[in-house]
Specification:
By secondary structure, the protein is an alpha+beta fold. It is built from ten helices and 13 strands. It has two domains: 258 residues, Sandwich (Jelly Rolls); 90 residues, no CATH class. Strands 2, 3, 4, 6, 9, 11, 12 and 13 form an eight-stranded antiparallel β-sheet that branches.
Amino acid sequence: MKTIINEEKFDMDDKSWIDFYTSHGWVVIRNTLDVGVVDESLAQWFDLKSKYANEMNLPLEDYEQEVSQWRDLWVEGGVFEKLIFEPYLHSIAQNGMGWNGSRLLHDHIICKPHKGSNKKIPWHQDSMFWPVDTHGCSTWTAFMNVTEADGCLEVIDMSHLEGCENPVDFMAKEREEFPENSLRVILPIESGSTILLHSLTWHRSSPNLGEHDRPAHLALWIHPDAKWRPDLVDWHPVNEHVESEPKSRLEGKKFPHFGTIDNLVSPQNDIHSGTHRDSGISMFDASQIIGNQLSLITNSDGGITKILSDQKAIDKIVQQTINAQFCSDENAIRVSLERLRVSYLAYELHKARNVYNDAYANWWSLAGEDWYNYFGVNL
């Protein structure tokens, strides 16, 4: 597979970007946000992180070691609401897709820290993760200059023309092979610029090896008449906010729409065949599996964050794990359980999480898989 570094970038008023996007499944648009909006976004994000860390009684640096994704930022108001409701981003989505309207599925910031939990995000297509019946697009907006060393986005050119595969598990082995004639394009980007990405385009990002964190704002856009398909993606967090019936138009207060809602005929075939789970842990149900096993170890049904905040429960998990000879390192067990506590609490309080699933993977390799086999697979 050939690899190139992208040099094709467009100004917003140069409408040839639409044809480029239609052909390639991605496009870089310069200066969609001015310096003032970027600075305002970074300031509000820092304030939110600081507030969230304080509510969890954690130093900000410790919080940032474990949390790398913050969802539904627009509901916090301020500049993040402005990014969604003013035509910075939804107009790009509509023009690129040829729609008369659009609907927000959700927005989030993903930060690749230059230290702490920082890995590759594997090759995937966004559509495989969205609980809707048809494809859409996302806007990926840089809040800082992002080079290849900083972990910029990479795409397989024109891969949006090949259809959708089933959901990829980020905790499993990454897809490594594409057709020999595929073209991998590395997309460095300047602060305030936006990548419009088709939801069928294969993409990934490499680890951040640079000197600063790499925050980016992502907004996921669907056709405003897209139908809700929780049967295909039963684990997605947005499912709990939908206020319509399965296979009808996805609607709810968390999914604002813009422009005209034209009727969309559902495709005859499902976009993919649904989420397939192998035995063991996966990104789709890691939190549930580990939560269930810790409840069984402690013989408690009081909720996972309560268990992980109770020193007696922690002591019991540590002792039982050592007694079962699953791990003899008491300090490593306690560190792993504290990482789990932070991960569960961050999501419970703020819908924030570690996009790499590091805390779950760490516990699984330390003792979780042994506990899984001990209790049986029906957790």
